[in-house]
Every structure is written in C-alpha cells, then in structure tokens.
Specification:
Strand order of the largest sheet: 3-2-1-4-5-7-6-8
Shape: elongated
Largest sheet: 8 strands, mixed
Radius of gyration: 30 Å
Number of strands: 21
Helix content: 40-55%
Distance between the termini: 66 Å
CATH class of the largest domain: Alpha Beta
Number of helices: 31
CATH superfamily of the largest domain: Vaccinia Virus protein VP39
Strand content: 5-15%
Structural class: alpha/beta
C-alpha cells in the first residue's frame, strides 16, 4: 500500500466494540467475505449477511442468517423487513464490491428499506492513492472507487449526515438521517454513473478531508455519532408528525432531538418549519439561521429561511437565500414564485429565469412513446394534476369545472399530489372517473401512470407553487399539456404546450413573447368562482354607521410592495378621517417588522389596524368592517378578491405589465366592474378616493353584489366549462392534425 496510513483505530476493532457496547437489534451486512465482521453480530436479535461467494471458515452466531446471493438479487427477491422478523433495520454495513456503481445501488436499496434512526456504515471509502483506489485492480492491496459514493452523497444528498471516520486502513463512513421515500439517487442513476465513474482520484486528492468530511477514527467519535442517532430518530418522528399536519407535536419532537444533540442542523431547520406553520415566523427565522451556522451548505435551510423572509415581506433577502438553494428544484420554483412579487422585475427578466429552471432540471429527461389514438372527435381523457384538491383556494375554482364537465365528451382524472385528504377532497373526488393519490410517486412513476391511464390532455393546476409536479410534465406523458389556474405565469417548460388565460389577464400580444407556452384565451374569463358553502349575509357598509371610510387590504405580506404602501399612504391623505384595515394572512401575531413597514411609508399608526390570519368564518365576517377593498400589485389577489366581492365589498385593482399583475383586472371585468380597474398608480388612488366619496354607490354595490356575481361570467359554471372543454378539444385537434401523415 502506498501513501500515508490513516491515524485511527482499525475498523474491525471499531465494529467489534460497536456490537459489544451498542449492539443493534437488527443488522445487515453486504459483502461478508471471511465473516470476520459478521461474527460480531451475536448480540443482535436478527442479523443478515449477503455475499454470492462467502469464504467463512468459522461458525456464525445463531442469530445470523446468511444469504448466498448478490445484493441486487437479494433486494429483488426478498422483503428485508419480513426477513428481519417484522423489525425495522437498525444498522447496515456495506462492504461489497469495490466499485462505485455497486456501492451506490447497495446504498439506494438499504435506504429504501430504512427506518427513522437507521445507520449505514460504508467500508473502504477513504482513497489512499491513485493506484490502490482505481477502478481496475493493479495492486495487491485494492479498495476500488467506493470513495466516490461518499462524494456523491455529499453533493446530491445534503440532507444526509455523512462522516468519514479516519479508521485504518481505508476509512469507515457513517451515514445518518436516511429517508426511505427519497428518489433523488434512483432517478438520477444514469447521470450519477456518467459523472462519477470517470472521476479520477486527482479530483479530490488536494481536498480529500473536506470533500469526504473526515473526522477522527476512534471509538469516542463513533460512539458519539451513533448515540446522536437517537436525536435523528426524534427528528424523523417530527417529520412524520409534520407530514400529518400535527405541527405542535412535531415541534415537541424536534425540541427533544435538539436537547440530545444541539448541533443537529436538520432538527433546527425542521423546528423552524414547525414554528413557521404555527405563526412564529421570526423565531423560525432564528432556527434556520442556527441550522446554517452548523451547516452553511444545507440547501433546505437556505430555502426555508427564504420562505420565512418572504412571509415577512423581506423579498430581496429572500431572493438571496433562495439563490443559495437552487440545487433543489422546488427551491428554484420558490424563487420564480417570489420574482412575481418584486415590482422592479420585468416580464422579460422573470421569463428568462423560468427558462433557466427548465434548462437546469427539465432538459434531457426521458420521454417514452405515446399510444393515444389520434381521432379528433373521440371522447377525451382529461387529467388534472394538483396538490391543492383540498381545503385550498384552488378548490373554489376547480370544483365548478369538475362538477360541470360533460361526461359524454370527457372522462376526468385527478392526480392528487398531497398526502392528506379532507372533506373538500372527498367532494372533488366524487366528480371524477378516476382519482389517483400520487404524493408518494416519483416524477418518473407519475409520468408512467399518466401514460398508462391514456390521458389525452394533462392539465397542471400548480405552476411553480407548492406541491407542483412540473418535472412530470417535462417528461411529456400526455399528447397535450396545459397549465391553468394556480400560477398566473409561464412554467418555462418546452413540454408545456398551452397556458389558459383570458383577454383581460393577458391582452392579445402583450405577454405572448414571455411564455414558453402558447396562450389560449378563454372568451369570458380564466376564472369560475364557487363561493364558500356557508357564508354570512352581507353586512351594511361600515361607513353608514361610522361616517368614516374604511379601506381594507386582506393579503399576505409578500404582496405588500413599496408601490402599494406609497399608494395607500397617498390615498389616506386624499380621504381625511379614513383608516386602513389590514389582515395579513400570518398565523398568530403580526410581526413587529411588518408593522414598521406601514409606519415607515407614512401611514399613521392611529389610522392603521393590523390583524394576523383569522379562522375562515372570522375572516369572512371581517369583510363587514370594510367599505372598499384595495388590491395588491404587482401580484394581484385572486381568491381574496372573489371572497371580498361575494361579501359585498367593491375591490379596486391596479393592472400592470406582468401576467401576475392582471388577475384582479380579469376578475373585475368578468364581474362587470371594469371601471374599478386602474392602469396606473395615480389612477388607482383616484378610483379608490372617488368611490370612497360616493357612499350611495358603495351601498348600492354592496346590496346588489351577490346578484351581480350570480348573473356574471364569473359564476356561470356551465358556460365556463363548455368554453374550457372547447379549448381542450381545439388543442386536441391541433395535435391530431400534426400526427396525420
């Protein structure tokens, strides 16, 4: 062996002590060889060894079961948990073939069978020199290129805790924080092999210790690492509770994890997520920053910190944090969503960023052949993909279409990408011919399911919002693909054929150049609104009682731009004795720094009333305290505008030069209130001030608003759905024409 020997203990001594002092209940060893290390597993309840050609010359403990097969064959033929007697896997030791691709497959298989708290050990992961760590054996002592697995995990699985103990002779890696549902490595297998197999030893020689995260190779270090796994179990339990929406219980689990291991960066990050959901956004920010102090390269923490900063309206800081997390596709989507809120960003700039997302994540994804029959007049299979088919703003607009689709002309399928269901989910499901729960599926598996279902027109309802499946659409599993409703901008994907909009949201020729999709303008509106089932009656205008006008803003902090703050300040000056009622959408108390933004814009504190998020019934009742609702810019309201109108409150909107700034204009025109749409900030103030000075008009609008909406295109569900189906049919016919010889 060439090169310096590692300074730590012999790896077999460490394994012997581990099995003696911290014996795992269940143990898996891949690559048994002479059985030296497998022989230590006598204190485990069940131990499994896998090797196609074991060379064992001594008896094994009675708890050990030996499978004489390759690891690939074992995992293909056996259920590991069943072989462990129904127990979860505690510890796995990978010491098989000395080649990267085998070690990678072994790790993927072990992780797929892992549980919270499972620990993986990997042998031969520290390369001593180029000759002994090459892919082809040319020396008596040979470790192969297993070290590339550690470099791969450190690069592409930053969520894992990966440490390489400097144990003799060639290192012993410890991997914690496994996620049995992760598909990151499996879905990138071909790309990973292409990247790492050719990688020479020289690529890491100068910085081996940092790239492989080398730590002391002694028993105290290994013991501390394994005991910290108790914290990992509590952290993973918190994640499971969070997945169920049990945020308070998740918070307690994360705090217990941190009591055991204060340096557990992922637990700090996850605690921040729980606190953010519980409305403690400023404390959540502190948690994310602590996580980043411990692991500055943790992309999840950068992404979640950016989410918190966005919640607080600190958009420039949020953008900077998102840009440190762009290895994650959903972080890039979050960045794109954020850019729509920033007034200084032009449609062209935002479009370019969307195209970059597609270049990074969608280019080169495999597209399997389609078998849809190209008959332009046959019954169509329509598929809607969304994580919002539940109690969510999207449901107010998708339910009218689902309920009114003509079953003689279309079969409707929904692909629901969220792990929890509610009463709204059950109601929507009843309107479909096929319902698929797909939150656990990879993008590739979902694409295969869509192809298997024979979907003709696949419709994205999320865009770059949460729980999107854009990388499924990038695989083009349906002949026609369109985006609609949940995101009022381009996806950036070449595979997305159309975006549904309307003439007021996207005037002809105005935004077409800033979309990767072809814009299809529905004749009346891109929206069809269904009011909440149980709504309070419309209350009299508060100005009738108080003699003073109450302007209102019901929105989230990211939408409160400097442009709007300046306009609202000018409006209060124009209308003496008026006041501003703001409901922010933040759970819990309004953060102090958000309140300061209003006073810094010149809005007196005695004319400002700030509230956090309300229970839905209370939120609807609060419209009774508003005379005129003020829309936001450059990201206008959608559901909040519709709710305000239904509760009798007229809304003033500012239509701008980006797609997301014209949603309010679209809604108001559909409701027959186009005179409340402004094309400049000055006109916005003028319209609101004029309306405030006309108490009779406010009262008349309020009294007749529900009948106005019922008679408008905004609530004509049957007409809207026929228009929607006509658009889908036209898209389908275009595809069929292109298919004809």
């Amino acid at each position: 062996m060439n090169g310096p020997a590692l300074p730590g203990a012999l790896y077999l001594d460490l394994l012997a002590r581990l099995h003696s002092e911290l014996p795992p209940r269940t143990y898996l060893e891949i690559g048994v060889g002479s059985g030296a290390s497998l022989g230590f597993a006598g204190r485990s309840e069940v131990a499994i060894g896998i090797d196609p050609e074991p060379q064992i010359g001594h008896p094994l403990p009675p708890s050990v079961r030996l499978f004489q097969s390759t690891s690939d064959d074992f995992f293909a033929r056996h259920d590991l948990k069943a072989e462990l007697g129904g127990r979860e896997l505690d510890l796995a030791f990978i010491d098989g073939m000395h080649l990267f691709e085998f070690a990678l497959r072994d790790f993927i298989n072990v992780e797929r069978n892992s549980a919270p708290g499972t620990v993986v050990l990997v042998h031969d992961c520290y390369p001593i020199d180029a000759a002994t760590s090459a892919r082809e054996r040319a020396t008596r002592f040979w470790t192969g290129d297993v070290w590339k697995l550690i470099a791969c995990l450190r690069k592409y699985r930053p969520d894992l805790d990966v440490r390489t103990l400097a144990a003799q002779p060639t290192g012993l890696a410890v991997v914690r924080g496994l996620d049995h549902g992760s598909r990151v490595l499996a879905e990138r297998m071909d790309a990973l092999l292409a990247e790492f197999i050719p990688m020479p030893y020289e690529a890491i020689h100068a910085d081996k210790a940092a790239i492989l995260n080398v730590v002391p190779g002694d028993w105290p270090t290994l013991e501390a690492t394994l005991r910290a796994s108790e914290a990992a179990v509590l952290n993973n339990r918190g994640v499971a509770l969070a997945d169920l929406g049990q945020w308070r219980q998740a918070e307690r689990s994360y705090r217990r994890a941190l009591a055991l291991d204060p340096k557990h960066a992922l637990a700090h990050n996850n605690l921040g997520n729980a606190l953010r959901q519980l409305g403690q956004v400023e404390e959540a920010e502190r948690c994310y920053r602590q996580a980043l102090l411990l692991r500055p390269d943790l992309p999840q923490a950068h992404n979640h910190l950016a989410n918190a900063l966005r919640d607080l309206g600190r958009l420039e800081e949020a953008e900077a944090s998102y840009r440190l997390a762009l290895v994650l596709p959903h972080a890039y989507s979050n960045l794109l969503f954020l850019l729509n809120y920033i007034p200084s960003r032009s449609a062209a700039e935002v479009h370019a960023e969307h195209l970059e997302f597609a270049r990074r994540f969608a280019a080169g994804l495999r597209r399997d052949p389609l078998r849809n029959a190209s008959d332009p007049e046959r019954k169509l299979r329509i598929g809607y993909v969304s994580g919002d088919l539940r109690e969510h703003s999207v449901a107010f607009f998708i339910e009218p279409a689902l309920a009114n689709h003509d079953r003689r002309d279309v079969d409707v399928f929904c692909y629901y990408n969220y792990p929890l269901a509610d009463a709204t989910t059950a109601r929507l499901k009843a309107h479909t011919a096929g319902w698929r729960d797909v939150a656990a599926l990879s993008d590739e598996a979902l694409a295969a399911l869509v192809r298997e279902d024979g979907i003709d027109v696949l419709v994205d309802l999320s865009g770059h919002t949460s729980h999107n499946r854009l990388l499924t659409f990038a695989r083009k599993p349906a002949p026609v693909q369109a985006t609609w409703l949940g995101y009022l901008n381009t996806t950036g994907l070449e595979a997305m054929d159309y975006r549904l909009t309307d003439p007021h949201a996207s005037p002809e020729g105005r935004f077409d150049a800033f979309h990767s999709e072809r814009l299809v303008r529905l004749p009346d509106s891109q929206w069809c609104y269904q009011p909440p089932a149980a709504c309070p009656e419309v209350a009299p205008a508060p100005c009738e009682r108080s003699g003073r006008i109450t302007f209102a803003v019901f929105t989230t902090p990211p939408k409160i731009s400097r442009t709007m703050l300046e306009a609202w300040s000018r409006l209060l000056e124009r209308v003496p004795a008026s006041r501003l009622l703001v409901v922010t959408g933040i759970v819990g108390s309004v953060p102090r720094q958000l309140a300061q933004r209003f006073t810094q814009a010149g809005i007196p504190a005695d004319r400002l009333e700030l509230h956090g998020s309300q229970a839905f019934d209370e939120y609807l009742l609060m419209h009774g305290a508003a005379d005129v609702m003020l829309d936001t810019h450059p990201y206008s309201g959608g559901t909040t505008t519709c709710h305000a109108l239904w509760m009798g409150v007229p809304v003033v909107t500012l239509a701008g030069d980006t797609p997301t700034s014209r949603g309010g204009a679209s809604l108001l025109h559909a409701a027959g209130l186009g005179d409340l749409v402004a094309e400049s900030a000055d006109r916005y103030v003028e319209i609101a001030a004029s309306l405030a000075g006309d108490a009779a008009r406010i009262a008349a609008l309020r009294a007749g608003m529900r009948e106005r909406l019922r008679a408008s295109a905004l609530m004509d569900a049957r007409r809207f759905t026929r228009n929607l189906e006509a658009a889908f049919r036209s898209m389908w016919k275009s595809w069929c024409e292109c298919r004809e010889p």
